[in-house]
Amino acid sequence: MSAFVPPDSHEPNHTPPSADPTFVLELPDGRRSQVGVALLRRLPRASVPDCYVVSTGHGISGPFRFEGVRLRDIVGRGAALQQVQRVDVLSADGFSTSISAEELAKEVAGRPILLADSLDGRPMSRDEGLVRLVVPADDDDALRQVKWVSRIVIAAAEGPG
Ligand SMILES: Nc1nc2c(c(=O)[nH]1)N[C@H]1C(S)=C(S)[C@@H](COP(=O)(O)O)O[C@H]1N2
Ligand SMILES: [Mo]
Description:
By secondary structure, the chain is mainly β. The protein is built from 3 helices and 10 strands. The chain has helices at 37-42, 71-78, 101-105, and strands at residues 23-26, 32-35, 46-55, 59-70, 84-91, 96-100, 114-119, 122-123, 132-134, 149-156.
């Protein structure tokens, strides 16, 4: 149920693990594709206002308005959504979270799970986490706001066929 996080994750990393914001999308059948910021900016956009980043070490910052592409739209490009069991979102610094199929499908109060590339109406910098996962239902000290997403791994449910 709970996502894997490294034990020291309450002390957030502030150093991007690399300069390039391109991430790899890994499909259930093993195929992989690269997703860059230019592609994200061509897809249907969504935004989520009034997001706070809660850090036990550094207090609360925000509110921020994050904008980008719905995670379920990215996942839906590669896999049939009804077969998706879980989506793991990882950063090259070792930080990661896991999104259940239910969370992916269910959008709470018009606040979708986003792959954000924009912050308060301007492009997000790499230092700010580009591309940054935003899970609006996250009330757990931003432990699911994965900065510098480098891999998205889609796991499919076992099924007949
Ligand atoms: N890749 C990565 N993402 C991360 C973290 C991290 O250490 N590495 N820390 C998380 C935590 S605990 C917090 S509070 C926020 C901090 O975000 P900020 O640096 O923009 O304030 O990033 C989250 N995302
Ligand atoms: Mo945090």
